[in-house]
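Protein record

Derive C-alpha cells from sequence
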Amino acid sequence: MKLLIVDDEQVEREAMEVILQKAYPNLIIKQAKNGNMAVEIAHEFQPDLVLMDIKMPGMNGLEAVEQISTDYPHIKFIMVTAYDMYDYLRSAIKLGVKDYLLKPSNTKEILHIVGKVMGEIEQEKKRKEVNKIQSEAFQKALAIVETDVVTQLLFDHVHEIRFNMLVEMLGVRSTNEMFVICVIMPKGCERSYFAVKEKMRQIGSGWVGALSGNQLPIIVFREPEKSYRSQAIFLAREILSIAPAGQFEEWFVGIGDVTDSLEELRQSYHNSLIATLDITLPSKYRFFSDVPNLEEYCEEDMVTYRENEFSDLIRLGKWEQIHLNVRRLIQCYERKGADLLQSQQRLLESLWIISRVMNEMGVEAVTPLYSFKAQNYRQLYMEAELLIDKMKQTYEEYSHLYEADTIKQIKQYIMEHSHENISLETLAQKVGLSPIYISKMFKEKLGINYIDFLTDCRIEKAKKLLCDPIKSIKEISFEVGYHEPNYFSKVFKKVCQMSPKEYRRTFLEKRA
C-alpha cells in the first residue's frame, strides 16, 4: 500500500513517516511539502492514502484534496490539522475525507486512525478483485450461452420468451429483423475463431455460433440506420480482415436473406451455406440472392426441396428420400430445358448441405465435388447418385456409435450436475460429439431439448428440498442451480402450476 504525507513542516512529515514505517514496514511512503507538490506527486505516485495538512501556503489542503480526488476518485484522505474548526471539517466531509487527526496527535491515535482507513482500503481492494473475477467469469459464461443460443436457434428451437430474455442478457442491439452469415475458414483456425468472436463483440450486432469443421455460423441483427447489404458487406469485410495472409484464399463469407421470425432463421442459415458454394470469387463474399436461380424451372419441386431441407432427412437417416428428391430435381430441370451447368451447380448446393449437416453431427464427410463437367443429364444423375452413396456409406459407418448409451450418459451427467451451469459445449466434451449433434439427438430421442430436461431435474430436486421446512426458498434456489430466487419461483410455478411456497404448504398439510 502506498501513502503520501503532505505537510509544510518537515519535522511533522518526518515524525509521521517514522511512526507509520515502524508500525507498517511494507508501507511505501512519500512526502510533499505543499498542495501543488502533492498534486504532482499524486499523479506519478498514485497513492492509496494521503495524510493532508489543511493550512499550507499557496494551495491549501482542501483545495489539493478536491483536485486530486477529481482525477483519482479511488484515493482516500485523512486530514491533519491543528485547528479543530467545524467549517474545515464540514468542507472535508463534503470532499469525502475518511477521517481527521488533530495536531499534536499521539502515536496510538495516529496508528488507530490510519490503520482503520488502511483496513477499509484493503477491504475495498479485495471487493474489487472479487468483482473483477466474477465479471470475467460472467463474460466467459455469456460466451458459452451465446454459442448455445445460436446452436438452438439454427438446429433446434428456442421459446420466444426465453429468446427475449437471452437477447437482453447478452446485450445485443437487436431488432425484429435478422440474417445469418456463414464464415468458411481452413480447419485448425481456432485462433481465428476467437478473433472473429472478439470482432463481433466489438461490433455488437450479432451472436457467434460454434465452429464446426470449417464453418462458423453467425446470427446478425439488423441495424436500422444501415441498409441490409451495406451492413452485411461491412461485416464480411471486417471478418475477412482477420484472415492470415497465407490463408486468405481459403476464407469466404456466405450471406443469407433477412428474416423477421425465429422460424425462418434456419432458412437464412441454409441460404448462407448455399452462398458459400464457390469460394474462388474475387470478392470473397456472396449474398444468397446473387446465386444463380433455377426456381422458375421447377418451382413446385424447389418448394418440396425447401420444406424437406435435406438436413432433417439426414438426421433421420432417410437416404432413400434424399435420393428421390435429387432424382426429381434432375428430372424437372431436364424436362424444363434448364442449362446443364446451372443444374449441376444447383444440385451441388444440395449435396453441400448434406455434407455440412453430417459434419455438424460429428460425421466427417468429405465435401462432395463433381469430378467433371456433365455432358448430359444422364451423366449428371449418375454422378449425383455416386456422391450421395459415398456420403451414405460414411454415415452408416459412423452409426456404430451407440446413441442410446450416449443419451443415457448425457442424462446421467445432467442429473448429477443439474445444480451447475451445464452447456451444450460441456455435454459435447463429455461424450466426444459436436454440440449441434448432441442437441438434435437429445431432442429426437427423448422428445425434449436438454434445457427442458435440465429444468425438470432441478425442479424435481427442488420438490424434495421443499419438504424440509427449515430450508428457505432462497437457499433452495441456489442449491438447485438458480442464482435468482424470483426466476426460480417463476420456473417452478410454470412447471408445477403452483409457487414453491404453495407446494411446500400443500405438502406439509398432507403430512399433517
About this structure: The chain has a mean pLDDT of 81. Residues 403-511 form a domain with the Arc Repressor Mutant, subunit A fold (CATH 1.10.10.60). Strands lie at 2-6, 28-32, 49-53, 76-81, 99-102, 178-184, 206-208, 215-221, 252-255, 285-287. The longest helix spans residues 107-155.
